[in-house]
Amino acid sequence: MKITHKQDTSHFQQMKPYEEEIIARTRSQLQQASVSISTLRFIWETKNEVIWSKASDLYEKLAKRTLKAGEPFWTYDIAKQGLRYAPNSLTLMQTQALSLAQSGSTEGAHELLNELISQGYDDPETLSILGRIHKDFWRISTTPREKENELRLSYETYLKAFEKSNNYYPGINAATMAVLGGNFDEAHALAKKVHAMCKEEESKDQSYWLLATIAEAAFIKGDIAESRDYYSKASALAMNDQSSLCSIRKQARLLSNFIKEDPYLLDDCFNIGSVVVFSGHIIDHPNRPTPRFPADQEKAIKDELKKRIQAMNGAFGFASAACGSDILFLEAMQELGHEIHIILPFAGESFKKISVDIIPNSNWAERYEILIGNAASITYSSQDDYSGGAVDFEFANQVLLGIGNLKSLVLDTDLKALAVWDENPGDGMGGTADSVEIWKTLKIPTEVIKLKDFTPASKAPSLTRTGFLTPTKKIEHPKGVYQEIKAIFFSDVVGFSKLTELDIPIYYEYFLGGVARLLEKTKHKPVIKNTWGDAVYLVFDSVSDAGNFSVEFRELVASTDWLGLGLSQKLNVRCGIHAGPVTRYEDPVTKMPSCTGYHVSRGARIEPITQEGQIYVSETFAALATMDEKCLFNCDYVGEMQLAKKYGIYRVYILREEKK
After folding, report:
1. Which of 23, 34, 385, 485 is the most exposed place for a label (fewest CB within 10 A)?
2. Region of residue 513 (left: phi > 0; alpha: psi -120 to 50; beta: else)
3. pLDDT tens-digit map of 157-211
4. Could you tell me if 409 and 626 are in contact, meaning their C-beta atoms sit under 8 angstroms apart?
5. Nearest Cα to Cα of residue 55 among 10, 20, 9
């Protein structure tokens, strides 16, 4: 069979005894029944790639564990690296496709699976994954014809996998798709057959997938009581596999909505935790004139945090890690056995100095380091140091909410918010008051632990941003220079260097002129625009404006007959988009408005790695886009990529126009 992955053979050499020992120890760790996400992260980040290249099953085992843990983006990167050394690993290719599907990259998963099928990989597992992709397309299709076609393809693909394997997984999915297609006789026949198979296996196989299959088959047959019983049993067994549990509930909702017109009929059978985003005040400094969160209330606040987390059924916590409320929330989540994700506004050491190690004779710095080591993930809004203004904290709050929402979308679970707050207005954007207001505006279920219930209310001005201490000495910018959060767009013309001098007037009239005309008529106006040679640089107020315009821009270039206009070469574009705080100013040379800074540079490094004709965006942009209802596009995961000019490795997404 033809394989398109290029194999890296540089690692081939005889294995040394110490390498065999490391491989055996790692295999043992990955085969343990219960391994925390932070342990998996440690294994991945400290691995010796040369040694792992000699044992591709390590990649397979780790990828399966991270996918089960609900980490499809990370799983994709593991599989991608593993395929460099084991290009024939069907397990890695299938896991990569599943990770794309779970992350919402339906088109990417479809392309990969079609490639596998065309190369002869028509085994039941690959077919079952492809059946799932057609089911996902059926969900998101908007026209009756598209929905009917995808439903049929899903049913036929699952049925083919079932006939090849006689395995209950494709069988029950074929039965469900038959129900959704209105073919009840076929659905009942398949459900009856699958139900009998699973009941026969039940004494030997007590996996939650088998129990969930019995539940699904019973529901199709009309036995609601048996269905509820087995869904509850499956849920109890799958508690450490939240990703699979969410998948089981998703299917149950689909069926109950179609058959009983109530998608939540069976929800009480599932104990699926919610994603909780957090914001709160720091602990009082000993010199604070009026108490707000005194140190002697630390235990009481932590106890209350645990109660609220349990009441909210929190399982995945997203917070910063400043001394006080943040650290208490993260510790409470961990002590309850849950997963924590940390979002920092700028470089770790700078953050630690400004927001953690600020209370004399305290252990906050040590507790911070422990949490950093135990976190399932750490996201930096910026790798730069503190800029001196509130915008760093404002942006970090937006990223925290967006990353948390991405997680809730991947797991198909609830997003909730929790705050420790004195209920006083903040001293600007980026404070706890600001976070609570945003949550309520977006109608996110919000719980507030009121500090006044634990200590007398403070009338003193707020000294903090949400989770971050604002230094009393701020960096002063020159007059007319200020910071704002913007979306940054860069585009480059592919083929420009091959244009002749005779082409330039045509390029000027139809490419640059076409862009100018598009900017005049578009609803998505930039606040800054510039060009140089083949580059187009635009800055927008929102991620929705930047993303929506990029779709229009790409369509303009793709739909133009460049050869017909007289150019000697066809033109195409690469586009890169990022979002973050930028420094605004009037350029003293050009007298035009402009902006610069860390995030402008980061945006500029995305475009050069973009495939021709595509739009790549940062994870920050993708996260913010999930909270903006005006976005007419989706962001599908591409993977971790080295940005241009050795700018670092970042997660990158591809922007696709939303299906009409």
Report:
1. 34
2. alpha
3. 999 999 999 999 999 999 999 999 999 999 999 999 999 999 999 888 888 999 9
4. yes
5. 20
